[in-house]
Write a structure and sequence with these properties.
Length: 266
Amino acid sequence: MKIDFQETTDDLAKRIDIHSRYGSKDIDAWMLEVLNLQPGIKILDVGCGSGKQCFSFFHHLNGKAEITGTDVSESLLDEAREKNKAIDHAIDFKHLDFNEEFDLPSNHFDLVSACFAIYYAQDIPFTLSEMYRVLKPGGRLFTTGPMPTNKQIFYDIIREATGKPIPPMPGSSRYASEIYGTTQKLFSKTEQHIFENPLTFNSVEPFMVYTRASMSEDRRLWNSLFETHDEFETVMNQIEKVARKRIEADGTLVMTKVVGGFIATK
Ligand SMILES: C[S@@+](CC[C@H](N)C(=O)[O-])C[C@H]1O[C@@H](n2cnc3c(N)ncnc32)[C@H](O)[C@@H]1O
């Protein structure tokens, strides 16, 4: 399966903002709790985007860690580097395409993290084996992604609005099955943690900001619903009508994010 995916700075930032404003739980706090990071460790973050997890790890450890953040998107790396100025460039941000061999030494990192990214890999066993290679023996891999029950209401609304089936999403269709299975085969020990975060919308506007950001740059995944800009706008109007009707009927619209976190030990 070839997945051509490029997150834009703007779409990612909008979704992160909606999660923090309308969610009741803090995903960064959950990650830090399940990971129990120790000072002095070497961390590689793959698919770091604008550096959300890198900065969270850095601040949690009071800077006592060697952190490398990597991504294929130069614009997201530039944004991360901009934020990195505030901490005196303490994090090393560099280009890495996880569909190719990592230009990094073997047996080097204590933790490799890949948050909401690995399911875009063309060849999951290849990418996971590169992650395994660069980990020290006893080192841990942490991946996160949406579970199959993730944001059911979002997909229900799109289905009702368009009358069409939801195309397979790489995250929810690959994460709990293919990625967990391959991780279990490669690593000596694997554990699974679940994070649930209900996002409560009292009006349709923030839900539509989320929907637009989620569907616009992922548009290749949704091409059975729209291809042109006009078709995209038509679908957004249909979705907005259904979402508005539900909010009027129920008072709120609650979209629950259900995220899995897999910790695997080399
Ligand atoms: C949903 S974002 C997550 C970013 C960040 N971890 C976060 O949670 O904010 C997915 C990231 O995977 C990156 N990505 C997609 N394909 C990639 C590839 N082939 N190699 C490296 N990163 C990739 C995207 O550029 C994007 O930054």
